[in-house]
Amino acid sequence: PVIGFNSAKFDASVQFKNLKSKDWTISKYLGSSTIAKQIVVKHKSSSIQLRFVDFKIDSMQHKLKDAVRDFGNGTYKKGRFPHEFININNYMNELNKNEPFPIEAFDNKLRNKKLSEVKYKEYLVEAAKHKSRWDYLRYYNILDTRVLIEPIDYLIELMFKYNVDMLANISMSQRSNAIKYSMAYNGFDINGDYNCESTDKSIEITQNYWRAKVDSYIEQDSKKDRDSSNNVTIDDYDYIKEIFKNQRCHMCNARFTWKNRPTLDRIDNSKGHSKDNIIPCCLYCNVCKANRDENQMKLMIQLRKYALFKQLPMTLTSDEGYQLLRKGITG
């Protein structure tokens, strides 16, 4: 990334002048036609990419010295250079000279301001340390670059603390939102218990219910060509009944009720529903896990439980829920 201050307005003009370059092309542009929040320039042959970012997207300050005060160490050391005096037509002749710039060269016609005698004398002291205007320009450019290093480092450390990608989140609202969610999940523990315990009684399955489950497991294994000769049977009714009554879901630690139906999750998905290959699991977790990685799916399930427990907003995935909410949206 190439980070500048107020570069969205001024540095972008340099890039637009070279739009017809045979070596470089603009691969991404974010912003309006007048202010660019981010520009990505790509080299056509080497695939090198330069991402131009304006520091002002991180600051409400309009002046560089104010941004340095708020995000840096408060020390603002930047030299003086006659920006309006030097242009594309005269830069070679003027910069080849060895004498300091005259005080008139620092006139700011845009703001109708002139450089004071005191500040001009300060410039003369610095200019005397350099043999030519080219040398002074290099010195000025170094100062111009260094002044933003500490503020940038401060922001990087701040965003790293909350695991926020500065380049992926390019606006203050995006980053504040990311920090908010990072802090909201600070207390999350993948092995935590985030179940809202209901007053429903623990489930006590009937023999007819268990017989239907046994037939269902045999049918599942047959369709997948799994060995079902050692599957649980109707004779295991008492054993399974006690498991569902006294144990909890191995994924989310939820209690089994008639609203939270129990199922048998297979430890080894390549084998059938044998007695030594089953573990109790609620219906939601079993469907969600399926044949996926258990640790990954446990993380997703527990994050959902945590969000519900803490009443955090989540992405709407239910079409029924969306339609219900949509009826209350006007405009």
UniProtKB/TrEMBL annotation:
Gene3D superfamilies: 3.30.40.220. It comes from the Eukaryota. This is HNH nuclease domain-containing protein. The lineage of its organism: Eukaryota, Metamonada, Preaxostyla, Oxymonadida, Streblomastigidae.
